[in-house]
Specification:
heterodimer; A: 420 residues; alpha+beta; 6-stranded mixed beta sheet; 4-stranded antiparallel beta sheet; 14 helices; 16 strands; 26% helix; globular; B: 350 residues; mainly beta; Immunoglobulin-like; 24 strands
Chain lengths: 420, 350
């Protein structure tokens, strides 16, 4: 299916092409996006840590990492029964090196990771060595997510939609050349069972807001990097790559990944909540009272300035009757630093406004603890904030699916054994 | 038209014919026709007051959902007020078709459960999702506590409304202990037509703006009434007024140690006031013997209340109840100016 080219902006068109996928979408996307001649890459220049993206990404004026704009996540099932053999590993390794040769490891080229689920490691008799990757589970009393249990997961990211689409096609064995480089697929080893697509960055949410879950009057600000209208991923609210990296055992230099599929319901957010309520619920009530957030929050600099929110979250919840999302989540700190590194992005998959919350952390426990802090159940017990109402942004989202993965170091990214 | 029973169709029909010859009045009439509501009163007391109009309500259904009953009903879309930091925020009905409401109660004690559960509603028509949201917790004069919001529908037809309520994240006492832990779901088939909606009663009030409240509506579901003083277990120590709410304080020794039971309720209709932050200070001969936050809890006998265990309460003790935050429940018209600025309540134990 070739998306209509009439009356659609370039960005909107590229996003639609990424969501649809396939070779027709790719060629349409290439016509429309007209990326510059992109550099080919060198596998020898790709870091040992698959998740080492920050040095390869651009930064904004405040030093915040600017995430690549287009994303595709592939959920893959091992095509055979039992455990992979050496020839499978070689196929996967060759396919992945092909991507590295085709594009430079940066935001204009291609960044990617490959992860493996508890279901994959359960194929082996041996236990996973040195790291625990649990099955996903519900993390709040009001959610009932379905578990994602593919064997493997591939996250592709680039500023160009045509790059992530091309890389997907190459992995699926549907093209022999990528950016002029000979490549091969991993389709003889893996079947694709699902794909999740999305985007992040100023302009993209506004251009793609004609979906379920967002009012028809196009309320999303042109400058907003995400549907909810505010910046996120401030440098000081993110864990560092070092701190999310596994340091010991055979998977040292790896990390863990959590991916949730979240539906957004922003009718109330944009039609009923005031700007002040939105600021209070996203950041903290004090930010709203002091009018500290301009526009999408660029003025906040390199942090969400939570130091300006009352230090005692419980007390603030009791007296304000409302509590901010960032304010709650920031309580999950270790050595006074955030525990997870967010690499999430918005989505219009299925014609529905959504968020693919992708984060990496040293251990899945870091994610679970951060999410618990975000639930604010402890804060709301003696306070007037609700389970989901006036309690951050819980009211506006439904977690549909969750999945946990191990991202091994690059050297072990092709079908690793649990005890290499 | 004022003061007499009528449906909104009749009201609007009347306005339309009056307005025909009068261009000057057009803008006001259009506003009135699009929302069906008279304008918000300019002078409202900082207290519970009679709203501009009273709307009826139509049941969609009631059903068992595990250990809870869930009722679903609707009325005209109308304005309401959500809680903002330091005040209320008016929400206009916009182009919404209906105000959709859910109520949850315990079938044995008939107690409405105005408690934290993260309730959500999904509306579908012919298998396609029309709306999905977490409705507001709300208080209205004729219905009491409920979950509700204005929603846009997709014309006449058969809808399915799925109401999902999480396990209760609140203290449960007495015979409620260990209950209402699980998430439960109820599904309602709803044959909706605009014509049927417009048959719902709609009446403007002559005494709008005066202090007072509409009578509770006759309905087949229990209402969120707090126990009368005489029905509260234990000993009622006294009561006070704060922000037009009545706050009844009792001490109950049911479980051995005395518990402070603080039960704030609306005037006139005695609805429980949920989502408050309260704390208490108990002093004896000038010395503080208890100081701390009160936890909200539900109990079949005490109803929804705020409480804490204390060592002993003696005659002559001074008790102060401090309102740390006013009730964060959204309000239908007539409640939005009350329960906002709430002074401490002090009493001396007799």
């Amino acid at each position: 299916m070739r998306p209509s080219e009439r009356g659609v902006s370039r960005r909107e068109f590229v996003k639609a092409a990424v969501a649809i996928g396939g070779s027709a979408a790719l060629s349409a996307c290439l016509d429309r996006e007209s990326p510059p001649d992109l550099q080919t890459g060198d596998p020898a220049a790709v870091p040992a840590r698959q998740h080492a993206w920050n040095d390869a990404l651009a930064r904004d004026d405040h030093g915040n990492v600017r995430m690549a704009r287009h994303h595709v996540v592939l959920l893959l099932d091992y095509a055979d029964d039992g455990t992979p053999d050496e020839s499978d590993r070689e196929t996967v390794d060759t396919a992945l090196r092909g991507l590295e040769r085709a594009y430079q490891w940066d935001n204009e080229g291609l960044l990617f990771t490959v992860g493996y689920s508890p279901a994959y490691f359960a194929r082996y008799d041996a236990a996973l060595a040195g790291i625990d990757v649990p099955q996903p589970e519900a993390l709040a009393p009001f959610e009932d997510p379905a578990p994602d249990e593919p064997d493997a997961i591939v996250h592709l990211a680039s500023d160009y939609g045509s790059v992530v689409l091309g890389a997907e096609e190459a992995l699926l064995g549907e093209r022999a050349q990528l950016n002029g480089v000979d490549v091969s697929g991993l389709d003889t080893v893996f079947d694709r069972t699902d794909r999740r697509t999305g985007f992040i960055g100023a302009g993209l949410p506004a251009e793609n807001q004609a979906v379920e879950g967002i009012p028809d009057d196009e309320p999303v600000d042109e400058d907003a990097p995400l549907f909810m209208g505010f910046k996120s991923g401030f440098e000081k609210n993110q864990a560092s790559e070092d701190s999310v990296t596994i340091t010991e055992g055979p998977f040292a230099d790896g990390t863990t990944q959590h991916l949730s599929k979240i539906t957004l319901h922003l009718d109330q957010w944009y039609e009923q909540d005031s700007r002040s309520q939105r600021v209070a619920k996203m950041f903290c009530p004090a930010h709203a009272e002091e009018d500290r957030v301009e526009g999408v929050g660029d003025n906040l600099g390199d942090s969400s300035q939570l130091g300006e929110c009352p230090a005692h979250v419980e007390e603030d919840a009791r007296t304000s009757g409302m509590i901010g999302h960032s304010q709650k989540a920031a309580r999950a700190r270790e050595d006074d630093a955030p525990r997870i590194l967010r690499r999430d992005f918005d989505s219009t998959d299925g014609g529905q406004a959504g968020l693919h919350f992708l984060s990496i952390q040293r251990s899945i426990t870091d994610f679970v603890e951060t999410r618990k802090a975000m639930n604010g159940t402890d804060v709301s017990e003696d306070a007037s904030v609700g389970t989901r109402l006036n309690n951050g942004i819980l009211q506006y989202m439904t977690v549909e699916r969750r999945g946990n993965y191990l991202l091994p170091p690059r050297s072990l990214r092709a079908l690793p054994r649990p005890d290499p | 038209m004022n003061g007499s029973d009528a449906t909104r169709r009749a009201v609007l029909g009347g306005i339309g014919s009056v307005g025909l010859g009068s261009l000057a009045g057009c803008s006001g009439l259009f506003e009135r026709q699009s929302t069906g509501e008279p304008p918000v009163l300019e002078d409202r007391p900082n207290a519970v007051y009679y709203p501009t109009h009273v709307e009826g309500m139509e049941m969609i259904g009631m059903t068992d959902a595990g250990d809870r009953m869930i009722g679903l009903m609707y009325s005209y879309a109308h304005r309401f007020w959500t809680m903002d930091v330091g005040g209320v925020e008016r929400v206009s009905p916009g182009d919404a078709d209906v105000h959709l409401m859910a109520s949850i109660w315990d079938p044995d004690s008939k107690r409405v459960l105005p408690v934290r559960s993260g309730l959500s509603m999904t509306i579908t028509k012919n298998g396609t999702e029309v709306d999905s949201r977490t409705p507001w917790t709300m208080l209205s004069q004729n219905m009491g506590f409920h979950y509700g919001d204005n929603v846009v529908l997709d014309g006449d037809g058969t809808y399915t409304v799925t109401v999902e309520t999480g396990g209760l994240s609140i203290q449960r006492l007495g015979d409620f202990e260990g209950r209402f832990d699980d998430a439960v779901t109820a599904e309602f088939e709803w044959e909706y037509s605009e014509a049927a909606r417009d048959e719902i009663s709609f009446r403007e009030l002559d005494n709008a703006g005066e202090r007072g409240a509409l009578d509770p509506m006759e309905m087949s579901m229990p209402r969120s009434a707090a126990p009368a003083n005489s029905d509260l277990p234990g000993r009622v120590l006294g009561s006070g007024e704060s922000g037009d709410a009545t706050v009844v304080v009792a001490v109950d020794e049911r479980d051995g140690n005395p518990s402070l039971v603080v039960s704030p309720r609306t005037p006139y209709n005695r609805y429980v006031l949920p989502q408050l932050s309260l704390s208490a200070t108990l002093s004896r001969d000038g010395e503080t013997v208890f100081e701390g936050p009160l936890s909200s809890a539900i109990d079949p006998e005490r109803g929804y209340h705020y409480g804490a265990e204390v060592d002993v309460v003696e005659s002559g003790d001074d008790l102060t109840i401090t309102v740390d935050s006013s009730p964060q429940v959204s309000r239908h018209e007539g409640y939005e100016t009350a329960f906002l600025s709430m002074a401490d309540i002090s009493l001396t134990v007799e």
